[in-house]
Design brief:
It is built from 21 helices and 16 strands. The chain is α/β, with parallel strands linked by helices. About 30% of the residues are buried. Helices cover about 55% and strands about 15% of the residues. The protein has helices spanning about 5-20, 20-45, 50-60, 65-115, 125-140, 140-145, 160-165, 165-185, 210-225, 250-265, 285-300, 335-345, 350-370, 390-400, 415-420, 420-435, 450-455, 465-470, 475-490, 505-515, 530-540, and strands spanning about 150-155, 190-195, 200-205, 225-230, 230-235, 240-245, 275, 305-310, 320-330, 335, 375-380, 410-415, 440-445, 460-465, 495-500, 515-520. It has an eight-stranded mixed barrel with strand order 8-9-11-12-13-14-15-16, surrounded by four helices. It has a five-stranded mixed beta sheet with strand order 2-3-1-6-7, sandwiched between helices. A hairpin with a 2-residue loop joins strand 4 (about 225-230) and strand 5. The structure holds ligand C2E and calcium ion (2 copies). Ligand C2E binds near residues 519 and 521.
């Protein structure tokens, strides 16, 4: 099909418009207009009129017009060329910027990936990454064959540090600790911060119990040297739960759960670490539910304070009572303090629990003194209470509220509760002693008996642990120990109390050794206040 000249022109100019740059079209248009105007002007000046012959003559004879005729092509070319160069440059700029954006996006992606798998404070791998690595190691043929160990570490006194020094200082300590852990393990990759209060360490080349325990002992040593924060020297108390694979599990979930259980038991061990054992699990579910319920028990008055009489072994008179807490649980019945005191200590519940006990004990004591019953009340303090700088003021407040005189009260403390941080404990004990309160050392003989501390502490009474007393008839060794403790206490000027007297023979033996006070089922177990008052009225001194 033949195309008309008009169509061809329209098509070409369309192509030109779409391909040619706007500046080159403008330049070409101006050059054409200039050439046409110049032709018309030349034709007019030569023939005094504009005629086709004049135009042809001007175009063929005038050299300047030839140059002008060439200008549209030149302008078109230069315009198109410069547009091309500009567009190339613009393309380059766009490419560079796109590359920059791509780089930034990549960095952001990396950052997001890092923060999803690492702890922001310490830069160590987080729980998710540790979990992944543990799973990978468990599947790795070498590790699968040789086995591995996971250590779960927490710092027992971290919460105390937090409440005393604040979160910023605690963060600094955690950072120092993470550096120490990473250099201890030799590689940052196998150490992870699992949550605010625990770290985990994967030991790939350690699969038997002896080397795992040795590693934990080693780690405790590495954490032992003090940390310095704002010129303060702090000692961290590590507790480490140990699990071995395949012995304790061959998947990450089981191993981490069991490491947590073992770590809970480590808080109660002297060494600071404990290897998981299946019987630890038996009480775990109950323990977990009890943690939440203890708080409610306090609010709902499910706790009771019982009292166990203390008898003067010379005069046979009742000189005091020991306050012992009881929990009557709606489903589980009576729960022994040995089960929930440890829990409360671990979960920061001991402070309100101790305050509850002290207030109840003070109220009862004040009531008895008002009624003319001059009983001294002994109250057990936990190791965590002895680190609380607010304790003396809280006790002073409760004494004022209940009308108790400090000399009616004896606080029982244990050797192990002092050893954690003797300097801090001493300050608190001295403040209470200055107020007029007395102290007894409880469970004597079971802890780290240190003569130096026995002399330093403001004590007035020493309680021989019931384990020696209960066996002294059958074990000559225990009888020797009891006699030695009685003499030691007297030499230091303390009153001696023997706990766990269950029969007359034991009582008589203790009397012959010069023991001052007795406590035990022979006289009475711990009973509620009302029962105690009945018991007192039936007690005959003779
Ligand atoms: P503890 O301070 O050594 O208390 C003496 C424990 O020996 C009491 O056990 C008491 O019932 C028991 N006991 C007394 N006489 C005899 C006896 O003749 N034979 C036998 N077999 N046992 C006797 P309980 O009440 O179960 O208390 C256990 C531990 O729980 C206490 O040991 C004390 O460390 C802690 N505890 C009890 N109440 C409190 C409290 O209010 N606050 C704190 N922080 N700890 C408490
Ligand atoms: Ca006691
Ligand atoms: Ca005791």
């Amino acid at each position: 099909m033949a195309i008309s000249f008009k169509d061809a022109f329209a098509n070409n100019s369309k192509i030109l418009r779409s391909k040619a740059s706007k500046p080159s079209i403008q330049a070409v248009s101006v050059a054409i207009a200039a050439a046409v105007a110049a032709t018309l002007l030349v034709s007019y000046t030569q023939f005094q009129s504009i005629t086709p012959e004049g135009i042809v003559h001007a175009q063929t004879k005038n050299v300047v017009l030839w140059i002008l005729d060439a200008l549209p092509f030149l302008f078109g070319y230069v315009g198109q060329y410069s547009s091309y160069v500009m567009s190339q440059e613009a393309n380059l700029m766009v490419l560079e910027q796109t590359e920059e954006l791509r780089q930034k996006a990549k960095e952001l992606e990396k950052q997001v990936a890092f923060s999803a798998t690492h702890d922001t404070l310490t830069g160590l791998p987080n729980r998710a990454l540790f979990y992944d690595r543990l799973e990978q190691s468990l599947r790795h043929p070498r590790e699968k064959k040789l086995g591995l160990t996971v250590l779960m570490l927490s710092i027992e006194n971290q919460k105390e540090i937090e409440s005393t020094l604040g979160l910023t200082s605690t963060d600094l300590i955690v950072k120092q600790l993470s550096t120490r852990l990473a250099s201890w393990s030799g590689t940052e990759d196998s150490v992870a911060r699992m949550d605010t209060h625990s770290f985990a360490i994967l030991l790939g080349d350690c699969a038997d119990r002896t080397s795992a325990e040795q590693a934990a002992r080693n780690l405790v040593k590495a954490i032992e040297p003090h940390f310095v924060i704002n010129k303060l020297r702090l000692t961290l108390q590590p507790c480490i739960g140990i699990v071995l694979s395949p012995e304790h599990g061959d998947d990450a979930d089981t191993l981490l759960q069991r490491a947590g259980v073992a770590q809970f038991f480590a808080t109660q061990s002297v060494s600071g670490f404990s290897v998981y054992s299946p019987n630890m699990d038996e009480h775990s579910p109950r323990r977990l539910t009890l943690i939440g319920e203890l708080k409610r028990a306090l609010e709902r008055d499910e706790l009771y304070l019982y009292f166990q009489p203390k008898i003067d072994l010379v005069s046979n008179s009742v000189v005091g009572v020991e306050a012992l807490v009881r929990w009557e649980h709606a489903q589980h019945g009576f729960i022994l303090p040995e089960e929930f005191i440890g829990l409360a200590e671990h979960q920061r519940m001991i402070q309100p629990l101790s305050m509850w006990v002290i207030e109840r004990a003070f109220l009862n004591c004040a009531g008895w003194h008002q009624a003319g019953i001059g009983l001294k009340v002994s109250i057990n303090l936990s190791s965590k209470d002895l680190l609380d700088p607010e304790l003396p003021d809280q006790i002073a407040g409760l004494a004022a509220k209940t009308g108790v005189q400090p000399e009616w009260i004896v606080f029982e403390i244990t050797e192990s509760s002092i050893m954690g941080d003797p300097a801090r404990v001493l300050i608190i004990l001295e403040r209470l002693r200055a107020m007029g309160y007395q102290f007894a050392i409880d469970d004597f003989g079971t802890g780290y008996s240190s003569m130096a501390y026995l002399k330093k502490l403001p004590l007035s009474e020493l309680k021989i642990d019931k384990s020696f007393v209960m066996d002294m008839l059958s074990s000559e060794n225990d009888a020797i120990i009891v006699r030695a403790i009685v003499d030691l206490a007297h030499n230091l000027g303390f009153t001696v109390t023997a706990e766990g007297i269950e029969n007359i023979e034991t009582m008589n033996m203790l009397k012959s050794m010069g023991c001052d006070i007795g406590q035990g089922f022979l006289f009475s177990e711990a009973i509620p206040r009302v029962n105690l008052e009945k018991w007192l009225s039936n007690w005959t001194v003779a």
